[in-house]
Automatic annotation (TrEMBL):
One GO cellular component term: membrane
Entry superkingdom: Bacteria
Protein name: histidine kinase
Region named Disordered: 437-511
InterPro entries the record matches: DUF7134 (IPR055558), HATPase_C_sf (IPR036890), HATPase_dom (IPR003594), Sensor_HK_TwoCompSys (IPR050482), Sig_transdc_His_kin_sub3_dim/P (IPR011712)
Species whose genome carries this gene: Frankia alni (strain DSM 45986 / CECT 9034 / ACN14a)
PANTHER family the UniProt entry points to: NITRATE/NITRITE SENSOR PROTEIN NARX-RELATED, NITRATE_NITRITE SENSOR PROTEIN NARQ
Signal sequence residues: none
GO molecular function, one term: protein dimerization activity
Parts of the chain that traverse the membrane: 66-89, 96-111, 117-137, 158-179, 185-206
Every Signal transduction histidine kinase subgroup 3 dimerisation and phosphoacceptor domain range: 238-303
Known EC number: 2.7.13.3
């Protein structure tokens, strides 16, 4: 009976060995290839976080097992312990050694998740002692479990080392316990090798899936952080842009209003009519400033409401700006030369704000005899803008760091605006007195001229010499030809029977 059972067991081992010998190589190759593909780093991940590819969602059973690791370990250890008890009952002569080695091999599996390499090394040493003492035990399955843990949690080199140690143990076990016939020894070797390969390949596959999932989660987190950073940078840039707009609008219009209001104080008793016109000019400037502020506040609305915003000022509004400053009593001339070039709306707005800020600084900080010149020169693919004040002017831009400056943000805003379109700004005192602001903005090299020959930025006709560096005629911009009907002392200090200095208060307004 015993010999029949022994023969049946050998037949089963031979059949299993042949089956594993024929198919285990191909199966292992497919599993390892799948594991390698799953651990391969994606080539391109520059996609949205929501579009990142990921592994298929695990089934309910796998989710349950992942949520209860202690239960999984118990389900693995308990069958091995039960087999050890059965073997001890069937072989009483080996009961004590078998149970001892089974316990010593199975207990360290408690730490297989946190210390896989240490657990594997300990179990390999215990198994070698077991081999030396010629004691068999079902607890040897713990070595395969430890090999799986190493393959799932550690780099490839440690997996190969652990697999080599396990295979050495397979050879030793097959030689000692495989039986005297070489065929049975080979069958035992193939069977145990197949078990080792299955444990190793399963661990590599599971570890690869975990690594890929962790990589994708980290990538998604980094993309989300980068997106948040971009949003914050965009919000900061938008706040800086709105701050520049508000500075330019408020500083310019308030400076004009203060100069006009101070002019009213000089003529309220002597020329009530002129004082009334000055008050009306203050009212008009205030309404314009209010409209500009409403436009700026419209920037903060949603996209659907932003479509209704009024167009922003550009080169075509420079004449109106110059006339507005002239109304305060500051003599201003404007020159335009060269073939006009195409400027984008943002670049044209930057030029307008640049001129506005420079004239505002001259209005605030210039002396009683200050004058201003605005020059626009269209060159080869670029527009040069130059604003000069003096002699007698001290138009120190805000934030320039020059003693006597207001410490505002005017010069910083100029540079930021022009730099956004690839241009540069140079500002500083002139050797002969006064202040100079020079900017250069690249533009479309194709010249653009209107049908009537007008130059962009100057709706008034300049005559045949419009493309040369000619000074505007007396009827347009001459600083010395302001008649009493145009600019009276009530409007800030133009000459009416003698020069009237502009109020000191208008020179001290902070930028």
């Amino acid at each position: 009976m015993a010999s029949s059972a022994r023969g049946t067991g050998r037949g089963i081992r031979r059949g299993i060995g042949r089956a594993l010998g024929q198919g285990i190589g191909r199966a292992f190759g497919r599993v390892v290839a799948s594991a390698a593909a799953s651990t391969m780093e994606p080539v391109a991940l520059d996609v949205a976080v929501d579009d990142l590819p990921g592994p298929r969602s695990p089934g309910r059973l796998l989710r349950l097992l992942a949520a209860h690791p202690t239960g999984v370990d118990a389900a693995i250890v308990l069958p091995c312990a039960a087999l050890a008890l059965i073997a001890a009952v069937l072989h009483p002569e080996r009961q004590a050694p078998g149970l001892v080695f089974a316990a010593v091999l199975l207990v360290p599996l408690i730490w297989r998740r946190s210390r896989p390499l240490a657990v594997f090394a300990l179990l390999a040493a215990i198994a070698f002692v077991q081999w030396l003492l010629d004691v068999t035990s079902p607890g040897d399955a713990a070595l395969l479990i430890a090999l799986y843990s190493v393959a799932a949690a550690r780099p490839r080199r440690w997996t190969l080392l652990a697999a080599g140690v396990t295979e050495l143990g397979v050879v030793l076990a097959a030689v000692r316990w495989g039986g005297p016939p070489v065929r049975e020894m080979f069958s035992a070797f193939v069977f145990l090798t197949g078990m080792m390969i299955a444990a190793c390949a399963t661990g590599v596959n599971i570890g690869g899936r975990r690594a890929r999932l962790a990589y994708l989660e980290d990538r998604a987190a980094r993309l989300e952080r980068e997106r948040d950073q971009q949003n914050r940078l965009g919000a900061a840039a938008e706040r800086a842009r709105i701050a520049r707009e508000m500075h330019d609008v408020v500083a310019h219009n308030l400076s004009v209003m203060i100069a006009l209001a101070d002019g009213v104080a000089f003529t309220l008793d002597t020329d009530p009519a002129e004082a009334g016109r000055a008050v009306q000019a203050v009212s008009d400037t205030g309404r314009e400033a209010l409209g500009e502020m409403r436009r700026l506040l419209g920037i903060l609305r949603d996209d659907a409401q932003q479509d209704t915003r009024a167009p922003q000022p550009g080169l075509g509004d420079l004449d109106r700006l110059v006339e507005q400053v002239r109304a305060t009593g500051l003599p201003v001339t404007m020159e335009i030369s060269g073939e006009p070039l195409v400027l984008s709306g943002g670049a044209a707005l930057s030029v307008y704000r640049l001129v506005q800020e420079a004239l505002t600084n001259t209005l605030k900080h210039g002396g009683p005899a200050a004058t201003a010149q605005v020059r626009l020169r269209y060159g080869a693919g670029a527009l040069e803008v130059e604003i000069l004040d003096g002699p007698g002017g001290s138009g120190v831009p805000g934030g320039s760091g020059v003693p006597g400056g207001s410490g505002g943000q005017g010069l910083v805003g100029m540079r930021e605006r022009v730099a956004a379109f690839g241009g540069i700004v140079v500002a500083g005192p002139r050797p002969t007195g006064g202040w100079r602001v020079h900017a250069r903005l690249p533009a479309d090299p194709e010249p653009v001229a209107s049908a009537d020959g007008a130059v962009p930025g100057n709706p008034a006709q300049h005559g045949p010499a419009q493309h040369g560096p000619a000074q505007h005629g007396p009827a347009q911009h001459g600083p010395a030809q302001h008649s009493p009907a145009q600019h009276s002392p009530a409007l800030g200090g133009a000459m009416l029977g003698g020069p009237v200095p502009r109020p000191v208060a208008a020179q001290r307004v902070a930028s």
